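User: Please fill in residues for this 174-position structure.
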């Protein structure tokens, strides 16, 4: 028997992968208290988490990410392992199907970049960055002065000449 989530009148449907018992277990572990999450209407997972911070539920003996289970149950589909379920609310413990959308690695990364959530994409914060924004501006000024070659700048800043070329031609650190 399908069960209603309190205050939302949405119906979970079992799939081939998840039984009625699995669905009931999943529903019991969702916190639908109003005003949760950044948008005020997140359904937050109220049980175990993976080390990544995503919700974790064990169904039929296997661990699953809760947002994937929610999307699968509410849309009555089985997901391919290559398909991503993305959060429009950016709350990784949210399982509200209205906050979830189907994507792939590229869509997920674009969403992350568009929302400025990828701390590693900002140059100064990248864990492997050897240069700062100030270094880049200085490199461009020194090269524009005509007093330094790309090779000299590479030696001065301790990076490869190809990096200097990409910087002075605005193909990197734009």
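Assistant: Residues filled in for all 174 positions:
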């Amino acid at each position: 028997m399908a069960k209603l989530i309190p205050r939302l009148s949405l119906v979970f449907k079992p799939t081939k992968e998840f039984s009625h018992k699995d669905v009931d277990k999943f529903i019991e572990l969702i916190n639908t208290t109003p005003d949760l999450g950044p948008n005020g209407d997140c359904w937050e997972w109220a049980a175990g988490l993976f080390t990544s911070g995503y919700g974790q539920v064990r169904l039929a003996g296997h661990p699953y990410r809760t947002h994937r289970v929610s999307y699968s149950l509410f849309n009555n589909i089985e997901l391919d392992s290559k398909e991503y379920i993305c959060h429009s609310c950016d709350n990784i413990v949210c399982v509200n199907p209205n906050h979830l959308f189907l994507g792939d690695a590229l869509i997920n990364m674009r969403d992350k970049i568009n929302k400025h959530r990828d701390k590693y994409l900002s140059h100064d914060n990248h864990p492997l960055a050897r240069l700062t924004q100030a270094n880049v501006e200085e490199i461009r000024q020194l090269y524009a002065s005509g007093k330094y070659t790309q090779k000299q700048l590479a030696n001065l800043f301790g990076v490869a000449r190809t990096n200097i070329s990409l910087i002075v031609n605005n193909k990197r650190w734009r």
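For context: The first helix runs from residue 20 to 28.
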